[in-house]
Specification:
about 600 residues, alpha/beta, two-stranded antiparallel ribbon, 20 helices, 9 strands, about 10% strand, binds zinc ion
């Protein structure tokens, strides 16, 4: 900074430089690992050049006297580094472009992270706040009398920040959405947002959705049809599918049940998996289908059903899972359980609301987004109903937004065991309570209920590292895609068909098959040869039907990532593995206790 005119003591300049250095190193924890990963090759020069560019532009900003530019950009850096550092601390991975986009889609659920990852988020906020202080701290230096080439950047410190943002954006574009790992999170997230924004602006207007493709045969086989979409319910943890499984309250239904066994979700994240089912996407063209297919609401409405949506997760008309106002207009009754009910009472209330619909004469099609068992699991069942213990800390109670201090994801065997217990308590409470209320006095001869979940959970039963339970980008654990799939009815014509189909397609079902099945059961005829549908559950499903998507939104020529829910022989091992871990941990506890005086 030789030419810069300054009356500030060199000591203050040094302090500011040290703080900025600490901020950059403290918020970019995966830098060393990234450099080691690149290794000594030409790519390292590009990597170093981008870093140098970021450092120089940030220093010009930090030492510039123009306050508005410093304030605005330090706020952008604060958001960016909080996001990347919290992500790195929680999942020990670089925040990629596709991951960033997916997290934006989940932002309505950010309060769920609160309590679950408090320590990591607080740490990220603290380090990022250091950046705001460092950048806005005096001294600011007057620019030197420079050659004209350098005058522009010196006079426009705010615009100058766009230089690294554009450079990283260009790399993202050239590398198919990749290549940003290890760059300063301060600029990377801004580049992500920039590329997403540019795509939104440049994308052609959303095309008109297609009209329904099937002809209705004139008869409605059922008065009431319901799709119960549970939240985060893992198919190989429930009593429908395994010994020692969590009681769902469904087994006493006996012969009314057609259980398709452990099925695969469409995707491993709520938004993509719910939307995939509502719009009946097919595996071959799911991204296009998501844009063009008519929703199942439109088929239901055309068949003469009153359409009802019961949402136990959100409130005050807030939408989720890519539902938009246009879709809401296709729903006759839009019902949200609301904040009057605590997390441990929402599914019971949702069951009551459904029950009221099922007791009406008027034909209806109802889609339920249950509260289910998204993390944190504690607080979603009353303490008095603890069936499995020990559980995770109960610091989190009653309100979704409570600050559950002490809440941590499972990091070791004992915590995994506690997490599984909390999860099972939640599952038992929310499924039993929901179905008890929903089915009271309902005539099942005229009603069909399809029960499934949006995705499973990864409890790292095999000891695999990481704390992520679902929504993994890239190769995902089989548990994330394992869901229950069963139908409930006592309809004389369809019950035998469904039970036979469940036997034939045991463990071969997929949520991709749900939409066409619903249409068949609404009374629609089979699709023609040119129509774009997955098979329905009543036919014979192929053996390789159970793959689910993890990397869903792909662009710039990237391929989606499909995952297996596991081989036949291991499909039901998950809970047993978790219980074995429990026994091992218990043994350690017992021997420690007996060793005590
Ligand atoms: Zn979900």
């Amino acid at each position: 900074m030789g030419g810069w005119v300054s009356r500030a003591p060199a000591a203050w300049i040094a302090v500011k430089l040290v703080l900025i250095g600490a901020y950059l190193l403290g918020t970019n924890r995966l830098l060393v690992e990234r450099v080691a990963h690149i290794g000594l090759q030409p790519g390292l020069v590009v990597f170093a050049a981008v870093w140098l560019l970021c450092i120089v532009t940030m220093l010009v900003l930090a030492f510039h006297a123009r306050t508005p530019a410093r304030v605005v950009w330090s706020a952008i850096f604060f958001l960016g580094s909080t996001f990347t550092l919290a992500h790195a601390l929680i999942v020990s991975r670089h925040l990629g472009f596709i991951e960033f986009e997916q997290l934006l889609g989940l932002i309505g659920f950010a309060h769920n992270l609160k309590g679950f990852h408090d320590a990591q988020i607080l740490q990220a906020v603290a380090w990022s706040a250091l950046g705001v202080i460092a950048i806005n701290l005096p001294p600011w230096l007057a620019p030197p009398d420079s050659p004209s080439l350098l005058r522009w950047p010196q006079r426009n410190p705010g615009l100058l920040q766009l230089l690294p943002v554009v450079a990283i954006g260009a790399i993202l574009y050239l590398r198919g959405g990749e290549g940003s790992n290890g760059f300063p999170g301060q600029y990377t997230t801004a580049a992500f947002a920039g590329v997403l924004g540019a795509e939104k602006v440049l994308a052609p207007a959303a095309p008109q959705r297609e009209d329904i493709a099937l002809a209705h045969l004139g008869q409605r086989p059922f008065r009431h049809i319901v799709l119960v979409m549970d939240e985060s319910v893992r198919g190989d943890y429930v009593d429908l599918n395994v010994e020692d499984g969590v009681e769902t309250g469904l087994r006493p239904l006996g012969s009314a049940l057609a259980n398709f066994g452990i099925a695969a979700s469409t995707a491993n994240c709520s938004a993509t998996s719910n939307a995939s089912v509502r719009y009946g996407v097919t595996r071959d063209s799911y991204l296009k289908d998501l844009q063009l297919n008519p929703s199942f609401w439109r088929y239901a409405g055309r068949a003469g059903y009153r359409t009802v949506y019961i949402d136990a997760q959100r409130h005050d008309g807030k939408l989720q899972n890519f539902m938009d106002p246009r879709e809401v207009a296709e729903i006759d009754e839009f019902v949200q359980v609301g904040t009057a009910f605590g997390p441990d009472a929402k599914d019971i209330e949702a069951g009551r609301l459904l029950n009221r619909v099922l007791l009406r004469d008027r034909p209806s099609f109802t889609y339920v987004n249950k509260m289910g068992c998204h993390f944190p699991y504690e607080g979603k069942y009353p303490t008095a109903n603890t069936l499995y213990s020990p559980t995770m800390s109960r610091a989190f109670v009653s309100k979704e937004t409570d600050d559950g201090t002490g809440y941590r994801q499972a990091e070791n065997a004992e915590q995994r065991w506690r997490q599984v217990n909390s999860y099972r308590n939640c599952l038992a409470w929310n499924t039993r309570g929901f179905f008890r209320e929903a089915l009271a006095n309902v005539d099942l001869s005229d009603t069909l209920i399809v029960y499934t979940a949006d995705h499973g959970q990864n409890f790292h039963e095999d000891g695999s590292p990481g704390e992520q339970t679902h929504c993994t980008i890239g190769q995902a654990s089989p548990g994330e895609g394992r869901i229950p799939l069963a139908t409930i009815t006592r309809n004389a014509e369809y019950l035998p068909l469904l039970r036979e189909a469940a036997r034939r397609n045991q463990d071969r079902g997929s949520a991709f098959n749900v939409y066409p099945t619903l249409l068949t059961l609404m009374g629609y005829g089979p699709p023609g040869s040119g129509d774009n549908f997955e098979a329905d559950l009543l036919g014979a499903l192929p053996q390789d039907n159970t793959r689910f998507l993890s990397t869903y939104f792909v662009r710039f020529g990237r391929e989606p990532v499909w995952n297996s829910i596991g081989r036949d022989t291991q499909l039901r091992d998950g809970l047993q593995q978790a219980l074995a871990e429990e026994r091992r941990t218990a043994k350690v506890d017992a021997s420690a206790a007996s060793g005590a005086p």
